[in-house]
Amino acid sequence: MTKPAMRVAVTGAAGQIGYSLLFRIANGDMLGKDQPVILQLLDITPALPAVKGVVMELEDCAFPLLQGVVVTDDPNVAFKDVDCALLVGARPRSKGMERKDLLEANGAIFTVQGKALNDHAKRDVKVLVVGNPANTNAYIAQQSAPDLDPNCFTSMLRLDHNRALSQIAAKTGKPVSSIEKLCVWGNHSPTMYADYRFATIDGKSVKDMINDHDWNANTFLPTVGKRGAAIIEARGLSSAASAANAAIDHVRDWVLGTNGKWVTMGIPSDGSYGIPEKTQFGFPVTCANGKFEIVKGLEIDAFSQERINVTLDELMGEREGVKHLLGK
Ligand code: NAI
């Protein structure tokens, strides 16, 4: 018997990540090859003609799983009865724009979208915020949706996780698929802390295999942290296909489970590892039955604590910068 369709909202549908993302969702890469979907696409009014062009292309793919597409500039329509919402659209940093102004512009978008999710989405909606600053935007949306479980709101650190996986695969000469128990702590920004201390390949410690603290501190972490900037430098545009791929990985694992494997998700802290509650922070998690769970009890050594403090301080600063938008 065919399953009922799941409704998936995607914001920023006319953008470059949208262009890499929508076709893969419609193809079943995110929710499963037996799961029909209805796409509910949101963008700002001037971008709607471009969204309609993308919809024509979606139609021309004749995806068997795609049961309908809604196009709108109204978040209340886009989020109506959605099971998943991928919040990709955000205000990019323009030339001369201060960080404060960026937080402010995005704060305005994510308070409105959080409220619309609160009012219209399914009660167990799975929200992934991709648009930057992703962690703080997710925090704002969550705080604007008091009737939804805070755990409905997550932010994307999976691209950092995947970047770290491929750097370790290259360093060790082992396939990406053999690496387990890697994680990335903190903010989706160059301050994030990719941590391979617990990682294993075929049961062996990656830390022991690499055995090079200098490579960790001075090559690995800066390479992963500055990868986004390196891609802009090379391509003249920010990462799009890899960001879309990471979004697919994140939601797929959340919905379908990880079979005990660790992945990284930005989620509201439950106070673990001294991270203040509700802070959207990258943690190692496992997923089962549509829920994520933080991997607890990991030892945090002095170097790691220092790194975690840096990324947490940055997030707390961002949170302070948007406090007034949340009436705090
Ligand atoms: P883009 O500029 O190509 O597209 C953004 C789209 O969002 C545009 O179509 C724009 O009209 C739309 N938009 C703007 N305001 C909106 C609103 N209020 N409601 C709905 N749509 C709105 O940007 P791209 O490359 O697709 O990136 C999107 C976001 O993802 C950016 O903020 C980028 O920094 C972020 N990003 C995050 C990553 C992560 O790992 N978390 C990785 C890569 C990008």
TrEMBL record:
Key words of the record: NAD, Oxidoreductase, Tricarboxylic acid cycle
Coiled coil: none
CDD domains: MDH_chloroplast-like
Function: Catalyzes the reversible oxidation of malate to oxaloacetate.
Signal peptide coordinates: none
EC number: 1.1.1.37
Source organism of this protein record: Limnobacter litoralis
Protein name, UniProt field: Malate dehydrogenase
Catalytic activity: (S)-malate + NAD(+) = oxaloacetate + NADH + H(+)
